[in-house]
Amino acid sequence: MATSNTYLVGGAVRDTLLGLAVHERDYVVVGSTPEALLALGYTQVGKDFPVFLHPQSKEEYALARTERKAGQGYTGFQVHATSQVTLEEDLLRRDLTINAIAQAPDGQLIDPYGGQQDIQAKLLRHVSQAFSEDPLRVLRTARFAAHLHHLGFSIASQTKALLVDITHSGELTTLAKERIWQETHKALNSRSPWVYFEVLEACGALQVLMPALAELLNRKPQALNTLKRLSEPENNAHIRLTGLLYQLNKPQIEDLAAQIKIPNDPKNLALATSNYQRQLRAYTELDASQKHQMLSNLGLLRHTDSLDQLLSLCEAITRTQEPLFGWQSPKQHILADLARIQSVKPVALMAQGFTGKALGEALKKAQIDSILQG
User: Cα separation of 138 and 123, whole Å?
Assistant: First the structure.
């Protein structure tokens, strides 16, 4: 395989030009075949696309390819990958011009569709009208808007119109739930995750994919404020997501988790915050029985792994909703109460003759009494 036929493409080229950290490198190989790459020790991955892993670096090398729309959804494409496909043809099938720049081994940039010009203009613009054939590009464009918002990027008006067209086509319903979560999770890890939801709302996609969030933002335009506040100090995607979801009720969170395959950990954090954020914020005003019930329901009697996450969310909610009152963390009060609860030993109660259900009730009463004595 001639090295002159191998080009660095996509995000690595884009982020280098933007001065951002490069986390992974993808390559396109022009003028080669699957047999030639396999003979060189490359490993083919996936059945749908001619993508190969380098024998040493394990980086992805894809044969130059073209695609033709042949069915519904983001998987409804016929892939054409032969040694005759040119680099320009391969770049033409990409989504945004800033992602359609290639770099030769000698550093020369190949940019047939104006990606560098759009980087200078801070513009997210589609490469061609084929953009509207793939509904996944709605989510990808929203994600890149979130990724590059801090640099001043915006979406070109013609591209915004295509996002609306795709939404109206009905093809968003063909997206796999797992892929929706994958793009959403990547957006939550970006510098400005709230922009992702703003873009989806503006083109109507949020109503199709996450109706409970669309209804929330329609009813409460300020619903993104906690997410915005959290995004600066907090880079945990699950905590960021909960900064939006806590404003939904339990059935809505459960429905949304099913609609876009939210994993259990972030779903449970959102449910806990939705149910208990008001009590946590007013912890010192609760009576001993209320404190015990909440700590038990949150699972904090068994382990305190989620406590810092919950309090981080409560702080952001307080600073968003009640900025004049400030934030007084109840963490030390909670830890002190948990220590008192842990000091109550079932063995002592069993020595007094308690067993079965009566033992459980006596243990609970003794734990509540220990909080009262604090």
Answer: 16
Cβ atoms 208, 173 nearer than 8 A: yes
Please state whether the predicted TM-score (pTM) of the whole model is above 0.90. no
Helices (H), 170-210: 177-188, 193-203, 205-209
pLDDT tens-digit series, residues 256-306 = 999 999 999 999 999 999 999 999 999 999 999 999 999 999 999 999 999
- The two structure tokens encoding residue 365: 């009463």
- Residue 80 DSSP SS3: strand
User: Six-digit token pair at 50?
Assistant: 């001619």
Here the contacts of 329-332 (C-beta below 8 Å, separation 24 or greater) are 330/280, 330/281, 330/283, 330/284, 331/307
Q: Are 345 and 316 in contact (CB under 8 A)?
A: no
Give pLDDT tens digits for 213-251: 999 999 998 999 999 999 987 789 999 999 999 999 999
Helix (H, G, I), strand (E, B) or coil at 124: strand
Q: Where are the beta strands (DSSP E) in the chain?
A: 6-9, 26-29, 43-45, 51-53, 60-63, 66-69, 77-80, 102-103, 109-110, 123-124, 154-155
DSSP H or E stretch at residue 128: none
Q: Write out the DSSP string of 327-359.
A: ----HHHHHHHHHHHHT--HHHHHHTT--HHHH
Please give the Cα distance from 127 to 92 (Å, whole number): 6
The DSSP code sequence of 259-292 is HHT--HHHHHHHHHHHHHHHHHHTGGGS-HHHHH
